[in-house]
Amino acid sequence: MAQVSISEAARLSGISRSNFYKNYIRHGKLSVTKDHQGRPQIDTAEIIRVFGGLQGDSNPVRPEMQEVTSNEDSQYQPYIQALLEQLEASKEREQWYRQQIGELTGELSNTRRLLEHQRPAPFWQRWFK
Fold it and tell me: Does the reported pTM lie above 0.70?
């Protein structure tokens, strides 16, 4: 696609140039190339990738935001059903683990009580019997 200057890219994205530099170029969210004279240029495809379209574009390109029709929805039903089954199995597993943790915690506290009651007398008390 076309290469544009940083100012033009900021205008096409609809944000200020300083914000564009600070939040997108400096953090590496947009890749910048240099032209033959060494000036920074940004490909308009990069702007569309990050912002979903160009300012003033009536039909922004956002494939992840397209509506799913009923025909497409039916092809995903087996995957949705499998994911729901996996979710249910993971919930059951979590409940079982919580139950095991509760039982082990109870056993541990009982063992602690038994150990506290069976402590031997300090060595110096054995001399005074």
Answer: no
